[in-house]
Amino acid sequence: MEGTTRTTVATTSLEKDLLVWHWNCNGFTNKRAVWLQHLQQITRRLDVIMIQETHSEERPKIPGYRLNDSPPSKRETSKGKGRGVCTFIRKGITFIEHELLGRSAIEHCAVEIITGKKKESTYLVNAISNPALRPAEIQGTTPQGKQTSRALDALVVCSDLHRPNREWGIP
User: Fold this and answer.
1) Residue 120 near residue 89, CB atoms below 8 Å
2) pTM of the model
3) Measured between alpha carbons, how far is 2 from 13 in angstroms, rounded to an integer?
4) 31 class by beta-carbon count within 10 Å (0-12 exposed, 13-18 middle, 19+ buried)
5) Are 46 and 20 in contact (CB under 8 A)?
6) Domains in the chain, please, with CATH?
7) Residue 103: which residues within 8 A CB-CB, separation 6 or more?
8) Cα–Cα distance between 123 and 99 in angstroms, integer?
């Protein structure tokens, strides 16, 4: 994928099905305690948690997970512009952080989860845009067509672009 990458190596790679949850929380800080209580009740621990609309300048934390995020800047949050997205990866899973869109109107974070053999990966993209953005500001920002070091094994895109966009597969 184009742009910067940073590898985070863990002691084990994932050898089973990847369990991913997506949540558009509309404010993470006030809901964190209830969310953590809910996570403790789940039979199988989630491998990846993709959260949108954190509305927080501070980096969220969940015990037992490492964070890949794109928090809204102070400038963006002052008038409700910034939303914030983050992806939590369970500790013990190897992943690589990718920068897909560079400086874009779409807040996003992208990770490559190394599953099983080193040649197999699952790419996860978490993206959101402000509903006030004009359609022209979103066009041409798709992750499709970005080059990777190898062919995609699997791609999961969680997005909330607030309007139809064929490039992102939203009719």
Assistant:
1) no
2) 0.74
3) 24
4) middle
5) yes
6) 5-168 (3.60.10.10)
7) none
8) 12
Q: Can you tell me which residue has the tokens 């939303």?
A: 83
Would you write out the chain's pLDDT as a tens digit for each of its 171 residues?
444 445 444 434 454 678 899 888 888 888 888 888 988 898 888 999 999 888 877 788 889 999 988 766 554 544 445 578 889 999 999 888 887 766 666 777 888 888 766 667 888 888 877 666 655 555 555 554 444 444 556 777 777 766 666 665 665
* Closest C-alpha to 139, from 170, 165, 103: 165
Task: Find all residues with CB under 8 Å of 171, minimum gap 6, and list them.
Answer: 164
Residue 128 · residue 52 · CB < 8 Å:
yes
Measured CA to CA, the distance from residue 128 to residue 130 in angstroms comes to 7
> In which residue are the tokens 């070091």 written?
149
Alpha helices, DSSP H, located in 11-167 = 32-41, 74-77, 135-138
Tokens 């403790």 label which residue?
Answer: 40
Q: In this structure, what token pair is assigned to residue 101?
A: 């869109």
From CA 163, how far away is CA 171, in angstroms rounded?
9
Give the tokens for residue 54. 């954190």
Residue 93 DSSP one-character state: -
